[in-house]
Amino acid sequence: MRMKEPFEKAVERHGVTVLRVCRAVLGAGADADDAWSETFLAALRAWPELPEGTNVEAWLVRVAHRKAVDVTRARARHATPTDEVPDRASSLDDPSGDERGVWQAVAALPERQRLAIAYHYLGGLPHIQTAELIGGTPEAVRRAAADGIKSLRQTYNAGEAQKGESR
Amino acid sequence: MNHDLFPVSRTDLDRLRETLIVRAQDDGVLDVAYRIMDSPVGPLLLATTEKGLVRVAFEIEDFDAVLETLAQRVSPRILDAPKRLDVAAVELEEYFTGHRHEFDLPLDHALSRGFRQEVQRFLPQIGYGQTLSYKEVAGLVGNPQAVRAVGTACATNPLPVVVPCHRVLRTDGSLGGYIGGLEAKTALLSLEQAA
């Protein structure tokens, strides 16, 4: 049996998760936006052939991983200095978005911690699947995610009031 | 840390969805676009394919169920893409305010087949404010015995309001059935009488 669910449902249910994954990997801004769009465009294209019963969120997170790799490569290729101002406002400028600088704090983490948080903690992939994506052992993934979250917790200690729109 | 502490604003997500719709259309992978609009007979779901309007649904039909049927019978590549239905929505608004007596929209009859589709293709010939009986329609489509089948064709009309199955009544003038409920049928008939 092939997927018979309206694609709109996948965007509604998983759009936020995929954007969190893209932002954790690429930073909140145009690159993450591009990865999100490429992910859902590729997913829409493949949707009718997706076997029924597929874990849609895990599938989307894996597609997002591939798209983030593409975006990172493209960025490396075009990493020449430029005077051009990006035409899209970064969400960092959005007062309703990252007023507490969480994405900036994530961006400041060591890469392994950032990726472990992206795919395991935010994307919901098990340690073993995250390790397949980012290399290393499942145990190392577990530690990297835990260390990353611990370091973020120190920045935003649990007692602090939750502010800002979360979705 | 709770996931909600990793902020994603509604504005950002809406902007990304807009981009997705535009790119999906450019790439030809948005098979069904839909929107939900308000109307005097309650919220209506409008859905279109590349060919034309494929579905108009009343809320009592359950929009989720309607979308699932579209996914199964037309394509699961479905997005809430309201702009694609601007023209249809404007024509419906004009109809509901009594300013439009005929719809000028390309239609996609993909959701019905055979005799049912034949009947549904005939129905727009019943003019605004006019009514026919199921029996008369059966005669006019060249199958006078098929009164019940005409009733079924009206009851399963995937494009109510635009394809005016509400203009078909029982021979005794009573309402018969309606996909949007009898209240909606009465409302449409009174609207057309008043204009």
Automatic annotation (TrEMBL), chain B:
List the source organism.
Answer: Kocuria soli
| Superkingdom assignment | Bacteria
Q: What does this protein do?
A: Involved in the cellular defense against the biological effects of O6-methylguanine (O6-MeG) and O4-methylthymine (O4-MeT) in DNA. Repairs the methylated nucleobase in DNA by stoichiometrically transferring the methyl group to a cysteine residue in the enzyme. This is a suicide reaction: the enzyme is irreversibly inactivated.
GO MF entries: methylated-DNA-[protein]-cysteine S-methyltransferase activity
Report the coiled-coil segments.
Answer: none
Provide the catalytic activity annotation.
Answer: a 4-O-methyl-thymidine in DNA + L-cysteinyl-[protein] = a thymidine in DNA + S-methyl-L-cysteinyl-[protein]; a 6-O-methyl-2'-deoxyguanosine in DNA + L-cysteinyl-[protein] = S-methyl-L-cysteinyl-[protein] + a 2'-deoxyguanosine in DNA
> EC number(s) for this protein?
2.1.1.63
Q: Could you state one GO cellular component term attached to this entry?
A: cytoplasm
Q: Which family does it belong to?
A: Belongs to the MGMT family.
PANTHER family referenced in this protein's UniProt entry, alphabetically: METHYLATED-DNA--PROTEIN-CYSTEINE METHYLTRANSFERASE, METHYLATED-DNA--PROTEIN-CYSTEINE METHYLTRANSFERASE, INDUCIBLE
What NCBIfam families does the record point to? ogt
Q: Where in the cell is it found?
A: Cytoplasm
Q: Where is the Methylated-DNA-[protein]-cysteine S-methyltransferase DNA binding domain?
A: 115-193
Gene3D superfamilies cross-referenced by the UniProt entry: Methylated DNA-protein cysteine methyltransferase domain, Winged helix-like DNA-binding domain superfamily/Winged helix DNA-binding domain
Q: Name one Pfam family in it.
A: Methyltransf_1N
Q: Does the keyword DNA repair apply?
A: yes
Under the heading HAMAP family, the entry gives:
OGT (MF_00772)
Top EC class per UniProt? transferase
UniProt-listed GO biological process terms: DNA alkylation repair; methylation
* Comment field (misc): This enzyme catalyzes only one turnover and therefore is not strictly catalytic. According to one definition, an enzyme is a biocatalyst that acts repeatedly and over many reaction cycles.
Protein name as annotated: Methylated-DNA--protein-cysteine methyltransferase
Q: Which residues form the active site?
A: 165
| Keyword annotations of the record | Cytoplasm, DNA damage, DNA repair, Methyltransferase, Transferase
* Domain (Methylguanine DNA methyltransferase ribonuclease-like): residue spans on this chain: 33-108
